[in-house]
Design goal:
The protein is an alpha/beta fold and 414 residues long. 38% of the residues lie in helices and 9% in strands. Helix 3 (120-137) packs parallel to helix 4. The two termini are 40 Å apart. GO terms for molecular function: catalytic activity; iron-sulfur cluster binding; metal ion binding.
Length: 414
């Protein structure tokens, strides 16, 4: 390990961090370095790993401090029994790489996690030292996201919140049974205890800021978590209920879902195949329904099949609408916002446009077609001045009429 140079370490530890999905940055406070003070800036719109239409890569430097670990979680490629090449950064190396990449406009912030080395407290100290050095020694004003360790001393975790924009504590798996089977050294009680402490610290920080303008900001972008999907026997209904529990109890900013990916030299207790990526996508859609569309967890769960799984061929809102047809059709000229949000094909922007437009005139089907992307999808579920679905809503094969059409993939598509 000591013979590796910084470039080689970066190649190993950046690749090892690719399995962590929780790296968006929305919700932080704006900072900049105008006037010649400090290095870097943040924007409230957020940072993620993506390519803009003009080819720009908008990204975080996403790395591990080390991929060595004293734990032996079956689903993790960096577990102690895994036969992978190991590397470890010093705290100063992470600081210098972050600053060098930022000054070259390669990145917009740092996402830092780590395997557990020596002890949870020692590892947490190293992570906090990176953030402290960037903030205090180099006046770095860019975005920092730290993955914290539930078993670490609460005082160390609080220090992470003083230097980082966002902190995250992974629950790893949706159920305690899955955690016991696949990660016996981890305990959901300790994980939730750490999340509860972080919630309290964030609330205390907000109270202090309201009373004293000079009080330091504490994790202004909140806390998040991540669940692995498909590594254990938990179904989508279990995952939706678990996510709702985490949102309600710990005021999380986001719950991320990561489809299990087979790893080299896998444990015998792991499934042989990864779950469909569409399953991960449907869980994100169900998460959106609870957070932005007013759906209760029980309502999202009712859209699942007898095995507790969300359908892969249609989105959860459409699945719910097909199961509860008595809620439709909805009159777009009279219905309140909460009912319009339940219409398949209506997003929050479309609903806002409808409510704004109907103040001035009665809306017809042509008006709806200009306010939403797919009028064919919404027609069975709405009433306008010139449209009523009559028998269409009760049609026996309505699913086939509104579900996306299967398309033949092009072998030579770019």
């Amino acid at each position: 390990m000591t013979s590796l140079d910084t470039r080689q370490k970066l190649a190993i530890l950046a690749d090892a961090a690719k399995y962590d999905a929780s790296c968006a940055s929305s919700g932080t406070v704006k900072r900049d370095s105008r006037g010649g003070n400090g290095v870097g800036s943040t924007e409230s719109m957020g940072i993620c790993h993506a390519y803009a239409p003009d080819g720009r890569c908008i990204s975080l430097l996403k790395i591990l401090l080390t991929n060595s670990c004293i734990f032996d979680c079956h689903y993790c490629i960096n577990r102690k029994s895994s036969n992978v090449r190991r590397a470890r950064f010093t705290t100063d190396e992470v600081v210098q790489v972050t600053l060098a990449f930022y000054k070259r406009n390669y990145i917009e912030g740092l996402f830092l996690s780590s395997g557990i080395i020596r002890s949870s407290n020692y590892t947490m100290e190293q992570l906090v030292e990176v953030a402290r050095s960037l903030r205090e020694d180099h006046d770095f004003r860019g975005y920092i996201h730290l993955k914290t360790i539930p078993d670490a001393d609460p005082g160390l975790v609080r220090l992470a919140g003083l230097h980082a924009d966002r902190v995250s504590i992974n629950v790893e798996l949706p159920t305690q049974d899955g955690l016991t089977r696949l990660a016996p050294e981890k305990d959901s009680g300790r994980i939730e205890g750490a999340m509860r402490d972080m919630k309290g610290a964030i609330e205390d920080g907000c109270d202090a800021r309201r009373k004293y303008r000079s009080a330091p900001k504490f994790a202004p972008a909140g806390q998040s978590t991540q669940m692995i999907v498909g590594a254990d026997a938990a179904n989508d209904r279990d995952i939706v209920r678990r996510a709702s529990h985490l949102y309600d109890r710990f005021s999380l900013r986001r719950v991320y879902y990561s489809a299990f990916s087979p790893i080299p030299s896998p444990s015998a207790v792991l499934p042989l195949k990864r779950p469909p990526l569409m399953r991960e996508h449907r869980l994100y859609q169900s998460d959106w329904l609870m957070r932005f569309y007013g759906f209760k967890p029980s309502e999202v769960a009712s859209a699942t099949d007898d095995l507790g799984m969300l359908p892969l061929d249609i989105d959860p809102k459409l699945a719910w609408a097909l199961k509860f047809r008595e809620s439709f059709p909805v009159d777009v000229n009279r219905a309140p916002r909460e009912l319009l949000l339940r219409v398949p094909g209506f997003g929050t922007k479309a609903v806002n446009r409808i409510i704004s437009s109907r103040r001035w005139r009665k809306l017809g089907l042509d008006d709806i077609s200009r306010l939403t992307l797919s009028v064919a999808k919404v027609r069975p579920f709405i009433i306008t001045t010139d449209w009523r679905p009559t028998l269409l809503t009760d049609c026996a094969d309505l699913r086939s009429l509104v579900a996306p059409k299967a398309e033949q993939l092009d072998l030579f598509a770019s």
